[in-house]
Amino acid sequence: MLPEALERAVFGMYATHALHLADTHGVLRFLLGRDGTSAAEMAAALDLDEETLTRLLIALDALALVESTPSGYRLPDSMAPFVDPASPRHIGGFVHHLVHGAAARMPVLDDYLRRGKAAVDAALPPPFDTIYATEQSTAAFLHAMWQLSFSVSGELAALAGLEETTHLIDVGGAGGAFAVAALERAPHLRATVYDLPQVEPHLAATVAERGLGERLGFVAGDFLRDDQLPAGDCFAFGYILSDWTDETCLALLSKAYRACPPGGRVLVMERLFDEDRRGPLATAVMNLSMHVETQGRHRTAAEYTGLLARAGWTDSRVARSSQDKHLVVAHKL
Ligand SMILES: C[S@@+](CC[C@H](N)C(=O)[O-])C[C@H]1O[C@@H](n2cnc3c(N)ncnc32)[C@H](O)[C@@H]1O
Questions:
Q1: Is the beta carbon of 223 within 6 A of some atom in ligand 1?
Q2: Which pLDDT score is estimated for 144?
């Protein structure tokens, strides 16, 4: 018998793949709202090989992702919001990204360990050139970002308190997850997503789907090169600073500070490391992922507060959501 932590590490690869298979073949969706179903019933209904499905379900039961009961398999109640494709918290897109994207990039960590990231990456194009290399990869990335960000954004918009804000600039706002949640919450608000030109049609689709018209605009730009950000009185940075080095974060926060009138604010929305950097697990693991996929890292709340202060922002406040993405808000006097 292996110690529990070692067992989890050794067999983690099977856990991710079993979850991905059960999601993509509709097994978890099938169990939603049903109280007990046999492997044979499920195999027939989903047109899957019964023996393979039986083995998959046995593994999922041992992983506590499904429960085997005398009347058949069922889904633990706590799982439902995460495995229902209709739920904003569905993790299918993210697990797909882990299996089909992140896993293939893992071997580069071996290279980084031996030669360092700077030397290995010297010959590579910047991260978003690769992520947006094709229309398909652009759509897949923006879909995964929406899934990761939309469900928590309503909560973050409430924590931000947008009553006094008139024009939100969502810097690197992607398909508009936070901007949409902010507009839904604050009927007086206007928002602009400022992002790379490849994002524009995806934001336009969001505006059309949600009937937001003039309330949600798009400005194409490159925040690394542009001297000025679009003008507004609140600047949102959701999962942006974790893509970049401290030096770049400082430059971005300074550009936002210059574009912001006195009395305006900045919202940094990120995973946060505990101050002793021993967790949470998701932040610790995604910090490795940021190393592989971006030039950034995850930080503690104190590190974000320090960067904000260096860029001129004052009066920082940390507000934690019930999910993984939290808020650090600061002001321009
Ligand atoms: C990790 S995503 C975050 C998306 C969104 N803010 C969220 O919280 O879900 C990073 C975003 O930054 C944008 N981005 C990357 N480099 C950029 C640049 N040089 N100028 C403007 N936007 C950029 C990407 O297109 C993408 O939408």
A1: yes
A2: 85
CB of residue 174 inside a 6 A radius of ligand 1: yes
94, 97, 128: residue to mutate for ligand 1 pocket, most atoms within 8 A of CB: 128
CB 50: neighbour CB atoms within 10 A? 14
Q: What is the side-by-side strand order in the sheet with 190-195? A: 216-220, 190-195, 167-171, 234-238, 265-270, 326-331, 314-319
C-alpha–C-alpha distance, residues 68 and 61, integer Å: 6
C-alpha 213 – ligand 1 centre gap (Å): 22
How many whole angstroms from 54 Cα to the centroid of ligand 1? 42
Nearest atom of ligand 1 to the alpha carbon of 242: 1
Residues of the chain with pLDDT under 70: none
Q: What does the block give as tokens for 312?
A: 């001129």
- ipTM exceeding 0.95? yes
CB atoms inside a 10 Å sphere around CB 122: 9
Q: What is the pLDDT of residues 68-94, one digit of tens each?
A: 999 999 999 999 999 999 998 899 988
Amino acid at residue number 245: T
- Amino acid at residue number 154: G
Contacts of 94 (CB under 8 A, 6+ apart): 144, 147, 148
Atom of ligand 1 nearest to the CA of 170: 6
Domains and CATH numbers, the chain: 4-83 (1.10.10.10), 125-331 (3.40.50.150)
At residue 321, the pLDDT reads: 98
CA angle 297, 90, 328 (to 5 degrees): 40
In tens, the pLDDT along 272-287 reads 999 999 999 999 999 9
- pLDDT tens readout for residues 288-302: 999 998 999 999 999
Q: Which atom of ligand 1 is nearest to the CA of 145?
A: 9
Residue 82: the pLDDT is 93
